[in-house]
Amino acid sequence: MMGFSFEKMNIEGAYIINSFFSEDNRGSFVKNFEKDIYEEHGIHFECNEFFISHSTKNVIRGMHFQLYHPQAKLVSVISGKVFDVIVDLREESSTFGQWRGVYLSNENRTSLYIPRGCAHGFMSLSDDSIVSYNCDGKYDKETDTGILYCDPDIAVEWPIMDIKNAVLGSRDKKLMTFREFKSNCKFTY
Q1: Please, what are the domains in the chain?
Q2: Neighbours of 98 (CB within 10 A)
């Protein structure tokens, strides 16, 4: 039996979280979240919405965020493997405009906590990746937007030989650049 562990990332407020895990003759049990334990580590999280995505290999989803009352997110992989990325969009942050990536899978049982004011996206590395998202904060459709996954100023290093082989939704192909974000957008907390 393994308990929770929390690793601070070098983006303020972001954590890599190893989940509670237990295994016996029946199979295994994983717990991704327990409010009191998270709060002991400085993470105050209230789930307002929960959803699951299914993605085939080389699908990129993101880099999403909302401007009005940005949401914090807790992301885990139920099945498969993804390269999960956050981009710090908080102007006051020392890592503003920087990205960090982490591999999440059902095998490593790792979750990613993404603080408010960061964009989030991932690339599926499996034929069928099932990703769960818990979001803290009310969803605001009007200000739900994102940064282009291949923005040269952010320069995410996606783990794919040729980024032209990435599979994207029509919305994600039209997201703004980082320069457009800096010129036109402000978060309202």
Answers
A1: 47-184 (2.60.120.10)
A2: 15
The CA distances from residue 17 to 3, 106, 141, 143, 184, in Å, are 10, 13, 28, 28, 33
Residues 6+ apart with CB under 8 A from 89: 65, 96, 97, 117, 118, 119, 147, 181, 187
118-124 β-sheet, strand order: 99-105, 81-88, 118-124, 60-66, 144-146
Nearest to 70 by CA among 11, 120, 32: 120
Question: Residue 183: in which H helix or E strand, if any?
Answer: helix 178-184
Per-residue pLDDT reduced to its tens digit, 2-17: 789 999 999 999 999 9
What are the pLDDT digits (tens) for 20-32?
999 999 998 989 9
Inter-residue contact 106 to 79 (CB < 8 Å): yes
| Catalytic residue IDs | 64, 133
Are the C-beta atoms of residues 119 and 89 closer than 8 Å to each other? yes
Q: Do you find a cis peptide bond into 63, omega within 30 degrees of 0?
A: yes
Residue type, 82: V
Q: Which token pair is 101?
A: 């990536």
